[in-house]
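Continuing from the previous page...

OK, I double-checked the sequence for histidine kinase against my notes and this is the correct one:
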Amino acid sequence: MQPSVDAIEAERFRQFIMGVTDYAIYMLSPQGVVITWNAGAQRFKGYHPDEIIGQHFSIFYTDEDRADGRPAKALAVARASGKFEDEGWRVRKDGSRFWANVVIDPIVNPEGELLGFAKVTRDITERRVAAEQLERAREQLFQSQQLEALGKLTGGIAHDFNNLLSVIMNGLELLRMARDPAIVSRSIDTMSRAAQRGAALTQQLLAFARQQPLLLAPHDAAQVIRSFETVLHRALPDAMRLHLRLDDGLPPALLDPTQFESALLNLVVNARDAMDGRGDVHLGLLAVTLADGEVARLPAGRYVRIDVCDGGMGMTPDTMARAIEPFFTTKEVGKGTGLGLSQVYGLMQQCDGALTLASRVGEGTTVSLYFPALAASLPPA
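Thanks. Re-ran it with the corrected sequence; updated structure tokens here:
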């Protein structure tokens, strides 16, 4: 009697499965006992079919996983959800371990009765080792970049403070030798300004390091800007104009007014310098609703956004990537510390907000600050 076509196809399929060497493909009984064993399973697990058929598949698990009941959990999940997939350590016949990707599928008859499980295992140890090596390389690169940034920060701090201390030391020498009251007065004024600059530099460093305590409270950002508007105008020369566009009825924002004013002054001064003292600076205030991920590190929600726009030369992508680095500046020597934008960035981190930059060469730059908005309205001023 000739075998049927179905029987021939089934035999071919069985031979195909048994001949696969890159995958361990075998059958389990409903209780987890090994029923079949192919060439791939023998190759990287080390068991001959006569040694393993009839054994429970938990023999491939580590002692820790068996104690935790993982083999039984794997079958239960496969039966309940229709599939189980996992990665973990498995044990070869010689006791060595390999990292495996495992898939278990339940096999049921038309009546829904469980007949057993089909199990496919891949040895992906090499892939895991390569991923770990890549992660270590990334970590080493990150540490190297941190050390480089720390070196730049330390060098910048040392340079600035050395200049300030030189002013104070020279002033003390003059005081020691001078008899003219006018020279004494000028020396004291010079040393006082140097000390104030040192204190300001320390505050900027603390803001960048997010160690300066903030007094966060709900505030009407528009009211804060209007009360500080005169100072912002004075930061610009006569040839420049500051244009305010403040929306009405904005929700209160969570901010520290003093640090907020300092941040705005920094941004306006940066805009002034970007345009060489000529042109208009635009400052806008509005409420925005963000979707999750629309602005990096900000959850979805409502925010008060401040935009400071200039019409300067703009920034190249390389400059934008380094704009918030401490002591990075494109200004001439002596005209900037490179801490202004870093200070603003540190403030936004402390406020659980964000700072974004938008710039194109020849078209100017826009710096946007996002402050979390509160639902409750403020009482009348």
